[in-house]
Amino acid sequence: MTSGENRGRDAESGKLCEGRKGARRLTARRISAGKINQMDVDEEVCLPRLSRVAVCGGTHGNELSGVYLVRELLKLQRRPSEDDDEEPTSLLTVLSNPRAIQQGRRYTDTDLNRCFTLATLNGPTSDSPPYEILRARELNAMLGPKGGPGAVDLVCDLHNTTANMGLCFIAYSDCDWICLHIFKHLQRQMPDAPMRFVHLGMSEKESYSLDSVGKHGFAMELGPQPHGVVRSDIYVLMNAGVQHMLDWVHLFNSGAVFEGGFVDVFTLVKNIDYPRDKMTHNITAAVHSHLQDRDFCLLRPHDPLFQTFTGETLRYSGSEPLYALFINEGSYYEKGIALTLARKRRLAVPAIRAQTEEEEQARGFTSEEEE
Amino acid sequence: MGQSEPRSVSGMSLHGSTARLSEARRVAIFGGTHGNEMSGVALVNLWIKNGADIQRRGADIKPFITNPKAVEKCVRYVDTDLNRAFTHENLSASGGDEFPYEVRRAQEINRMFGPKGSPEAYDVIFDLHNTTSNMGCTLILESSKDHFNLQMMNYIKKAISPASCLVLLNEHPLLKYSTSRSVAKHPVGLEVGPQPQGVLRSNIFEAMRVILKHALDFIELFNEGMEFPPCTVEVFRVSERIDYPRDANGNIIAMVHPNLQDCDWEPLNPGDPMFQTFDGKTIPYQGSCTVYPTFINEAAYYEKQQAFMTTRRETLAASGIRKA
């Protein structure tokens, strides 16, 4: 991990942090430059409370853990509860793509989870737009609008993968302290669960997924599970993850201070496609059996990558060892992705707490000026 | 559901304890009967391009993609399940364009490889499938009296030992269904899992390839006159289909229990955990005796109201066979 690298990313994450992180922006920027000053890590970042949280399932209609989990949450919400009046956080539970859920497909016309770019959300309406674009605009009205002051505070979008990835947080930002602290909390509460934080490594301007609609957001991705199947072990893990996340939000809103620390973050670098037939574009090899199911292993130059149908081994030709993930995700064949490669680095995360009401009011004046 | 279809067992005569059967000359290998079960699609496409590995003396072996539209879209089926479409009613229906795609396809396949039940039908059809269930390599038998198939399955099991390949017998009058392979005199289903739909796993691909190699070797040996002495074959006979517990609206309210998930072919005793509700309660199996569950949590069976199938273990006797 070179300081040159960090400086590059630092400039980017500095921009990402603007307008979102409250009074400690300068400290936050210094921390992500890799110079970890113990005092900085202990200084608290104060962030607005999370008064509206959305949990979304069925963004892909055949990723069933989230579908069933949201259905169960909806059932619980219909029951009157004594705690309702005391609960300062409102929880929205959403089945994102009802048509795809009903059909048991990932999507009907186009992948809903690629429809949340600002261009698509605000673009012109054609005569017969794909169902998912209409639905994305509905969801943006419900949970957003993206980028606006009325957007929900936190979106947690539930997904499954056929890859052996355990429980992953997938986020655009590597300095969204809310998401990173929720992740740390889950690590503490679920120490036996395989858990990783994946950073997409692209700017927020390019963000395209449902979790980018809220002020904070991440996808909670669990695997391995075949699409169209609900496995009890995966469901129980996802349910625990969501419950711990909601507990954390409650604690955060109640004024708890969460101490700083370190999180290993995997930042995506590039995708590798299958070898394909030049004429038919059909794949001509499968992920090599040595690599299959070994998500988050380090792929070194010359390690086996693919096994052709005629038995030949194809090897990784890159020069940099990288971490492999999304190995053999079923829905990525059509996107030309056999696996994704990432770099790992240890990120320093500052202590955080929620702003008090007074601090929120003070921020309200200054943020108006900034806008 | 499949009705019992008339089957001509031509050319079978008993000579002592060895049945003389006609040669197995016309053989087909079907892939893509379900368009998202990838091993069969990949193998058949490979062999269509270069059939060297499937050549055998004395037999014409034809690799064939049965549901190309479903393969193209990487879905199980376009209008209706092709592997349920080979009913007598569908195959004899006339008319055409208004029928579902798979019904028209079934009629075409019946013309090419059948007609089902006639002397002109193909001798052997292997139908390649994958399952999300942890079934390993499973051979599917449709008749307990098909001595040719029983001998083939015995041969395959011995050839891959110590690796295992189990035999599922679906002869149940109500649960049996009209498969694409049923067009042939000797239909052989090959089901390998676990593999998600739309995913191609190297190990599953290799396992299926090896099974087929042994199956074709058997056919070659048989056609060259080798005698296969009487043998016994352990099979798992389909008994019952068990659905998920559902609420009044038909929604699933429980999942396959973690103790049962992935435990295909292991004994399930009365009282053993079977389902787990979303809030963690256990629902036990309440049958009267021990059964062997299979097709546990197959994705395609949610819509067919099946969480798993129960089977009973049985030993079948196969007469000796030899080419007539």
UniProtKB/TrEMBL annotation, chain A:
Catalytic activities: an N-acyl-aromatic L-alpha-amino acid + H2O = an aromatic L-alpha-amino acid + a carboxylate; an N-acetyl-L-cysteine-S-conjugate + H2O = an S-substituted L-cysteine + acetate
Domain named AstE/AspA barrel-sandwich hybrid: residues: 263-344
Topology relative to the membrane: Peripheral membrane protein
Gene Ontology CC annotation, any one: cytosol
Cofactor: Zn(2+)
Keyword Zinc part of the UniProt annotation: yes
Residue span, Succinylglutamate desuccinylase/Aspartoacylase catalytic domain: 51-247
Enzyme class: hydrolase
Pfam family, one: AstE_AspA_hybrid
Key words of the record: Cell membrane, Cytoplasm, Hydrolase, Membrane, Metal-binding, Zinc
Source taxon at top rank: Eukaryota
This enzyme's EC code(s): 3.5.1.114
GO molecular function: aminoacylase activity; hydrolase activity, acting on ester bonds; metal ion binding
CDD domains cross-referenced by the UniProt entry: M14_ASPA (cd06909)
Compartments, record wording: Apical cell membrane; Cytoplasm
Family: Belongs to the AspA/AstE family. Aspartoacylase subfamily.
Protein name, entry field: N-acyl-aromatic-L-amino acid amidohydrolase
Taxon lineage: Eukaryota, Metazoa, Chordata, Craniata, Vertebrata
Automatic annotation (TrEMBL), chain B:
Residues the entry annotates as binding Zn(2+): H34, E37, H129
Residue numbers binding substrate: N83, R84, Y177, S178, T179, S180, R181
Gene3D superfamilies: 2.20.25.160, Zn peptidases (3.40.630.10)
Annotated keywords: Cytoplasm, Hydrolase, Metal-binding, Nucleus, Zinc
Residues in AstE/AspA barrel-sandwich hybrid domain copies: 232-312
Domain of life: Eukaryota
Main location (coarse class): cytoplasm
Keyword Zinc annotated: yes
Residues at which N-acetyl-L-aspartate binds: R76, E191, Y301
A UniProt-annotated Pfam family: AstE_AspA_cat
Example of a GO MF term: metal ion binding
Family statement: Belongs to the AspA/AstE family. Aspartoacylase subfamily.
Entry protein name: Aspartoacylase
